[in-house]
Known about the structure:
By secondary structure, the protein is mainly alpha-helical. The chain is built from 42 helices and seven strands. The strands form two sheets. Strands 2-3-4-1-5 form a five-stranded parallel beta sheet, sandwiched between helices. It has a two-stranded antiparallel sheet with strand order 6-7. The longest helix is centred in the first third of the chain and has 18 residues, at 95-112. It is elongated, with a radius of gyration of 46 Å.
Amino acid sequence: MPFMWGHEVAGTVDEVLAGAAPEGSCRTLLVEGPSGCGRSTLVDAVIERATAVGAVVLSAVGWAGERTVPGGVLRQLAHRVPQLLPAGDVGPVPAATRVEDMQRFCRTVDSLGSDAPVVICVDDAHHADRTSLDHLQYLARHGGRARVLLVVTVPLQERPSRAAFLTELLRRPGFRRVTLGPLSRETAADVVRSAGHGRLAGPLYELSGGNPLLLRALLEECPRADRAEPRPGGPYAMAVAACLHRSGPGTAAVAQVCALLGPRAGAERAARVLGLPTEEVRRTLSALEAAALLTGGRTRHPVAQDVILAAVPAGRRAELHRRAARVLRAEGCPAAETAGHLLAAAEHAPGADAEHLRTLCDTAEDLLAEDDAAGALRLLELAHRCCPEGPQRTAVGLRLAQVSWRLDPAAAEPHLDSLLRAGRLGRLDPAQAQPLAQLLMAQGRCADLAEAADDSGRRADPAGAPALPPLGAATGDTVPAGEHLLQSARLTDATLLPVWQALFSLTYSAGPQRAVPWTRRLLAEAERRRAPGWHAAFAELHAQALLRTGDLTGAVEFAERALAALSGSGRAPFAYSARAVLVRAHDALGRYDRAAEHLDAPPPALLRTRHGLAFLHARGHHHLTSGQPQPALADFLEVGRLMREWRIDHPAYLPWRTDAAEALLRLGHVEHAAHLAGEQLALPDARHPWTDGQALRVQALATTVPQRRAALLTRALVLLRQSGDRLATARTLADLARLHAPGTPARTAHLEAAWRLSEECGAAALAHDILPVAPAQVVREAENARPRPASGETRLTASEQRVATLAAQGLTNREVSARLCLTVSTVEQHLTRVYRKLHITSRRDLPLQMTPLTPAASGTV
């Protein structure tokens, strides 16, 4: 690419070379310009022109490695003329000696130019040593009779190591300054077209910015590709490295920070990272823009960015990333950008001081506030690795466990183990005991929680202190407070357990129907906030609530969603609560093989968790379904033993006593079964409809007195209906039906109601056990066995049918009146007429399926 002379440059050079300049003058040409824009090319052109006319040419190139070597440039100038060097050492000498040396230098130059002009060229003078610059400055001020042209090149922003040098040049009459720059778009296009790549003129200009060196390098790459796409290590990459190297260390440092900051690059931000004045960085940035190494503070291509950063030593690069992270965080930039610099710093130089650790932890919290738990986890893991043993490492480990749990409960296990070991060694701060307990609760590690509570109690009170039950008592008193919490609390690591406990209380105390809307909402929130661990926890609880209401297909769906959220942790202890739901639901649906798939040998750690309790409980029910009461009894009793040992014996959660009682009844141990049912009724949780109803049903099955059995079953039916458990209600209705003779209206009504509830739940096996034949056939048999009423009284009115239907479903007269907006007296009158028309004596004999109405028989209240 030929160099194009400017008129001013050509005139100055020709004036000296042609002898037009007066004798005794030293003309100076200062060439400024960004790297790659022709400074060295201009010097070469001057040397070529001067040599052609017979001028004496002396040349040197500054080098950063010789900045501190006295006389480095002088030695290059004296390569062909040794007389230019001082007679003695060029190192530090007294001032008088230095003046004598500079005078001798001027006389030697004067003698060289006795017959021809002298041209002295110093390229990259910003790298020249002080001694050499002093000699050149003296020559410019005290030039002899010879005609001398001094050509000096410097980058735009870098200055020689002695500012007085340029000042002296500026003062001389024969001083000329030339500023070079990138090619214009039109000139660059001409160059590209002349190389035969006209169609790439636009892309090549954008990549080179008109920098001749970069443009030439890109043209070298074009024959290897049909598009303007630089490759790592190619000519373009080498040209960028050359420009950066020749720009000087100060300019290179700014370029490196801008490349490191990427889209966030800017003068003020780069100045804060480097700790330099903003104006100084702004001037340097302008020079980089002029050299086309940057545009808008950013590199023009990723290859250029990589080249610039590759020149930074690993330790320095790590420090710049740490500084950038602190600057970006202080400015409130997105936490992900700060995190990127912190992670990059760790890649180049592991380790962290106290300030860096604080930045790591604070940025992790910023990421959590943006629901980027995965990013926060990476920073906390890095902080944990860098922390020395001590309280800070324990605190980081605790936070690491909480964030790991948000993503995958199984991933939190190792961190919990470490924290428990620290607790056993007395290294756990008292303030950390409660968060650790919450994590153990969330993880279901009941055995470890009981142990930790005992250790904590003994440290607080040598006599020992009772531990709080990990699952809490599922009392109705906690329900209003729990619902208030659900309405007001935002889901965080700190509120996760209280929210979970509130849902637990709703599910197992107030009724699963009240929990279902909340679990749906929290499931959606966990998904929106990218927290699969939370999603798994709420999906499991949602599945349990649906199972208790008898929504078997829904329970299967959400239990499987819980397992899917756990990804590869489906065999970890936490997953076994969801698998327990699948066992119970598949058994009820009659899919016994599907249920058995989830009953493989559990991991040893399982039986130290509440998930192990759920697994044993489900396996016990599977044994009962399979007609194996003895192994079922063993599982239920083991559940009871563990619950008592861990002080979480709450039948509202797992009613192991009534489950064991059912197994005992099938084994013929009636008295023992009745004792367990009575024991459950005596516990505080027996106040809850579901727990009380289960126990009353077992007590009824264990008694041989028909009237007492009927009374107990009737009470159990009311409570179980109130609890929302449709399957338990169906079983109780079937038990009540067996108290009546075949073909009686009461038996038919109860069997049909039980069958329909089972069908609604999809419990085909239970429905077949209740009614092996279609309910319509049973209804016809009952109708045939029922006495015929007198003519005119064979039909119920619409109002009578509505009242009778609700009464048959177990509603009281007051509840029926509220539902139908009638007075209690009107309800009683309707029921009296229904009893008379159907020839029955109580609501217990009401069939759920009434005789169809004819239009003529329909009426109003």
